[in-house]
What we know:
Structural class: alpha+beta
Radius of gyration: 20 Å
Domain Nitroreductase: 13-189
CATH topology of the domain at 16-85 and 137-206: NADH Oxidase
Shape: globular
Bound molecules: flavin mononucleotide
CATH architecture of the domain at 16-85 and 137-206: 3-Layer(aba) Sandwich
Organism: Corynebacterium sphenisci DSM 44792
Family: Belongs to the nitroreductase family.
GO molecular function, one term: oxidoreductase activity
Low-confidence stretches: none
Number of strands: 4
InterPro entries: Nitroreductase, Nitroreductase-like
Amino acid sequence: xxxxxxxxxxxxxxxxxxxxxxxxxxxxxxxxxxxxxxxxxxxxxxxxxxxxxxxxxxxxxxxxxxxxxxxxxxxxxxxxxxxxxxxxxxxxxxxxxxxxxxxxxxxxxxxxxxxxxxxxxxxxxxxxxxxxxxxxxxxxxxxxxxxxxxxxxxxxxxxxxxxxxxxxxxxxxxxxxxxxxxxxxxxxxxxxxxxxxxxxxxxxxxxxxxxxxxxxx
Length: 217
Ligand SMILES: Cc1cc2nc3c(=O)[nH]c(=O)nc-3n(C[C@H](O)[C@H](O)[C@H](O)COP(=O)(O)O)c2cc1C
């Protein structure tokens, strides 16, 4: 264990707040690229890396996103605005590239690639038949978005996660595929406010022992 790392991470997690006011001016582009690269380190089922991230830079697109998000201040103000996209068909696009790269790097040999490809297609088929493809895509996208939330303070930034938007209008503004869902909008930037901790319920109220309702201590 690394106590310093634990302490720093604990501090970062406890001090993180949803911030809705941001300082104007662009963020350092190198840092933004580093931040985005770290978000891509988020895990995804079978490492399919299917969640897409849309960086909203064009003011005309932002204006439409702002309208779709009910005019929320942070959408207008934050220098960096990201939409995390869950696309149930995303894995079909990424599987060939992931396979190609894994073969090129030697991470998979051809037999493994064939076996994994078969297993992934079978898994996705079962999920799709059960009507759960969207749910599965959402899980991966939310994990990527969570990386964005947690990484921001390490760059001196804050973030505002949002689902308060009109799904159809937002998808339209972003040109998202019909079957896709915006899992989360994330506004990021240097904070211009320091909101208080809104509190959390005690551990015993939220952690169950063995079964739902099982008393913790
Ligand atoms: C999935 C999700 C959706 C949210 N949507 C919005 C939103 O649309 N607008 C907003 O102002 N805050 C939104 N929030 C922020 C929450 O209100 C905030 O995280 C919560 O009150 C806890 O505060 P804290 O993040 O400072 O601990 C959202 C948070 C999450 C996790």
